[in-house]
Automatic annotation (TrEMBL):
Single GO BP term: DNA repair
Organism per entry: Heterostelium pallidum (strain ATCC 26659 / Pp 5 / PN500) (Cellular slime mold)
Name under which the protein is recorded: Tyrosyl-DNA phosphodiesterase
Localization per Swiss-Prot or TrEMBL: Nucleus
Family, per entry: Belongs to the tyrosyl-DNA phosphodiesterase family.
Cellular component per GO, a single term: nucleus
Keywords tagged on the record: DNA damage, DNA repair, Exonuclease, Hydrolase, Nuclease, Nucleus
Chief place where the protein resides: nucleus
Binding site for substrate: K150, K371
One Pfam assignment: Tyr-DNA_phospho
Matches recorded under PANTHER family: TYROSYL-DNA PHOSPHODIESTERASE 1
Catalytic residues, chain numbering: H148, H369
Superkingdom assignment: Eukaryota
InterPro entries according to UniProt: Tdp1
Amino acid sequence: MVDRIYNKNDNQSNKLVNLSHFIIKGFINNNSNNERDLSFQDLFKTENKDDRIVSILMSTFVCDWNWLAKQLSIVIDDCYDHDHLPLCQVAINYDRSKGTNSGRSEQEIGNPFLDGSQTISLKLSENKSLPIDIIHPPLLVSQIGILHSKIILLEYQQIIRVVISSSNLTGSDWEVLGQTIFIVDIPRIKKNNIDNINDNKDQFKYELVDILSSLGFTDDHIVNALDQFDFSMIHQHGIHIVSSIPGVYSHNKYGLSKLASLASEYQSTSKATAVYQSSAIGMTSREWLSSFKAAIGTDNLTLPFPTLNTIDEMITYNPLGATESVTIRYHDKDLLLSNKMLSKLQYNNERDPKVDNSITNLSSHPPLHSKVLITDRWIYHGSHNFTEASWGSISKRQSTIKISNFETGVFIPTALFTGESIQSMLRFKVETPLYDFDDIPWQMNKHYNILFNNIHQDNLDNNNNNNQDSNNSLNYHWNQFKKEQQLLFKFNK
């Protein structure tokens, strides 16, 4: 599932196309041919087939390097010789126990790539390898925090494509899990217009440079190259990047403070309801919950989240999706349940009519890894989950905010959504019943044994067309979870 804003540039106009919500191409149990479908390789397609990639910049929490090598080997074909390969950098989370800010990537790079090196050689074919600089951005040593931003920046000769999503660089994220993504193409400025364009206040560009620099992308060719592109169209439409950067701040540039500042310009009515679908819900205090509601401008907030019964049924109808539900985390004790803020996550079957609608629950659909906050005046989409670590905690005197994670998302005024309702574009239903008294939220840390006891290897093989490489790629998070738990798992045959 993907949210997309796509800026189509041609010689006549710059047109902002509406936000779309859709299933990613290749989802195993979905035969949808929805025009909004998107694959990882689709990110690299441009209207001008002769426009060559100059540089690739990506940030991710985790990366399946073998999967990424296969994807890039298709994108970077024979038209790129050894002397003209694009520059490539990847910022990735790392294990701080190995060093303050220089530890190895949390998921080892491993063979056939160099493990722990700052530069790896990603083998694309027998005679071609792509050097990739690995970046480990600074994290706060004194507290829990991760790099969770998911950004892809593709510089071409004529455009630069900005991609902000909820997807990590794994086959599971792009082909199994439900995700959201923002895409915009920014045209390169003609040489005689550069001075005039750069006099404009392109806030979106400054916000992008800020997060890229904070993540550690220091290559002048990538970061400073943004000055060569015209971001004014994005600025004119009121679209902003909302980032979280670890630290303590007395301004409103980051996290919940930034969201509050933007939301204040689009005041909702006091009775308006906000809906926040995210793949993780953290331990929530009354103080932080109050701060969050104040920031978005409404006391009425509901959180669609899968129940234990949802995942239990998914095991039968969609075992591959069920295994990747280990990415869905719930850590709150009873505050949200007692305040009746959890609602049943239900899919909008009309959104993808070719999905099996005879199954009325979520079992024929993928687990949602997306993070979407919907109000009557604006929408947020990105990497922020409903956690204090993601958004930050505001001090009691409202003077500072303390942030743990790197996060990145996009703030979009709903006035841009014309031609169809927001609900018709969303993969899940906005208005759904609240949890019943006997409903239990899916809590991976407590319930993962259900997966171990009920998932059969034959089911996964059938879903993966008996392709072992595909199986490893599409079960990436499940396989990593088993390693983390150091569990010896044997499938029943």
